[in-house]
Write a structure and sequence with these properties.
With 343 residues, the chain is mostly helical. The protein has helices at 2-11, 21-33, 36-39, 44-59, 66-86, 95-110, 114-130, 137-140, 146-170, 200-223, 232-247, 258-267, 269-291, 301-321, 330-342. Helices cover 68% and strands 0% of the residues. It is globular. The termini are far apart. The model has no long low-confidence stretch (mean pLDDT 91).
């Protein structure tokens, strides 16, 4: 099991860094150090979190057969959901149960159950609201220690980002629309290493900035079958806004060419994963803006193809560098298919 948890932190945690690793590892060691009898009374939300991490870790490892891999992963995810039910998660939202639900949603997507993921994510988003994660912790949790405030912001960002980019894929309305959590309040972890000018916090801020503009300008109109832009001038202004956000990203996240990324992967595989995920999302959204067309505005075919080319290149580069991991991520594959059709 330790190898599956390690795989989770290697392949999944870089692009969804919402779990405080030191705290989790202490809880994980404590859980397995006690007797079997004592484990039966353990916190159900911790058990659920452990099992979903094992399930996602299984999706990224090689097993003797695809059938064994699928059965093992689904056994773990079933155990995770059962632990949530024993925890009575619907009436007792907690940070761990929210983290677990975020990961279960991604598991369902990777397992080609996008409709199930969308339905489950709806429960997740209401649970996040019920726990008050959408509220600024410096207002509603005045007595909370800094680490708890930081974790609340990170987990809300994970829920918000998942909701936004899942909405992009399936063209249904975003739900995480009411919040006063501020991106600038997400502070750097003093103990977190800075890798070539970037940290997990800077990655979270970057994805948060992108998701914030995508939610209102792309998700909402597409969910209502409306045009993203009303005329070419409005489209040009929106493109400039997106480009401004991209130029504001830390340098490693704007280093997108094969040679530079392969070199980056040799130095920091975590940072390379983050760069490719961010790049894929950015150019996919740019492609959607250029491809938008209606009676008053034609599609910008050349710009659409150029953005699609950059986006799909990130998929194949991810596939090359990380030995097929891109084939596990449903939304990465879905975007790549959409981009291939556009070109």
């Amino acid at each position: 099991m330790n190898s599956l948890v390690a795989k989770f932190f290697d392949a999944v945690d870089p692009v969804y860094p919402m779990i405080h690793r030191e705290t989790f590892e202490n809880d994980y060691i404590q859980f397995w150090s006690v007797s079997h009898q004592e484990r039966t009374t353990a916190d159900g939300s911790l058990v659920a979190l452990i099992f979903v991490m094992l399930a996602m870790g299984t999706q990224f490892v090689d097993l003797p057969s695809p059938e064994e891999k699928e059965q093992t992963a689904e056994f773990y995810i079933s155990a995770s959901h059962q632990a949530l039910r024993m925890f009575s998660y619907l009436g007792r939202p907690s940070m761990r149960s929210i983290q677990t639900m975020v990961l279960i949603t991604y598991f369902l997507m990777n397992d080609n159950h996008a409709s199930d993921a969308w339905a489950f994510a709806g429960i997740l988003q209401r649970q996040a609201y019920a726990l008050g994660l959408n509220r600024d912790p410096s207002i509603v949790k005045l007595d909370a220690p800094p680490l708890e405030m930081q974790q609340r912001r990170k987990v809300w960002q994970a829920v918000f980002m998942q909701d936004t980019f899942l909405s992009v894929i399936i063209k249904l309305p975003p739900t995480c629309t009411h919040t006063d959590v501020r991106i600038e309040d997400l502070t750097e972890d003093e103990n977190a290493p800075s890798e070539y000018g970037a940290t997990d916090t800077s990655f979270i801020r970057s994805m948060w900035s992108l998701a914030s503009i995508v939610q209102g300008t792309i998700c909402t109109p597409r969910s209502l079958d409306r045009a993203i832009c009303q005329n070419p001038a409005e489209r040009a202004r929106l493109v400039v806004h997106f480009q401004k956000i991209y130029r504001s990203l830390p340098l490693p996240f704007r280093t997108f060419n094969e040679t530079a990324l392969c070199d980056l992967a040799r130095r920091s595989r975590r940072l390379a994963r983050q760069t490719l995920f961010l790049t894929s999302n950015y150019y996919h959204c740019l492609m959607l803006i250029y491809a938008d067309e209606h009676e008053s505005m034609p599609c910008d075919a050349r710009a659409t193809m150029e953005a699609a080319h950059e986006a799909i290149s990130s998929y194949f580069l991810f596939h090359t560098i990380f030995d097929g991991e891109a084939g596990v991520w449903f939304h990465f594959q879905h975007r790549a298919f959409s981009e291939a059709v556009s070109t």
